[in-house]
Design brief:
Length: 124
């Protein structure tokens, strides 16, 4: 990790290239930090998609969460849209986890297994 002085001395803007990335010091148009972080996240996954029902912190309302899907952010949003349509409910993608409103574990398990994923029902 760079020292505080090295961080403060870094180039923030250049008239030649415009804004620069503070992490890799490249112009923002050439920055690959986000792509590298996405590749690292996908490499950490074990290939098992986990489906669980959660109610904590949701005022008793249950949601079905799907984690561990080895897809990029854009592909996750597309998958979430298709799964929400299949279940007929709402939901969202937050922190690489798909949230579907209601308890739809079996429906989602069948839908993901037909896509070729290894699925486990986690939690109670």
């Amino acid at each position: 990790m760079a020292s505080l002085q090295d961080q403060l001395r870094g180039l923030v803007y250049s008239t030649e290239h415009g804004d620069t990335c503070p992490a890799c010091r490249n112009p923002l148009a050439e920055c690959e930090c986000a792509d590298r972080a996405e590749a690292e996240r996908l490499a950490k996954l074990d290939g098992i998609v986990r489906i669980r029902r959660e109610t904590s912190g949701r005022k008793g309302k249950g949601v079905t969460t799907i984690s561990g899907v080895p897809l990029t952010q854009a592909e996750l949003k597309t998958l979430a849209k298709e799964l929400k349509k299949r279940c007929g409910t709402g939901g969202a993608v937050k922190d690489d986890v798909i949230e579907i409103q209601g308890d739809h574990r079996q429906t989602l398990k069948e839908a993901l297994e037909t896509r070729g994923y290894t699925v486990k029902l986690a939690g109670g």
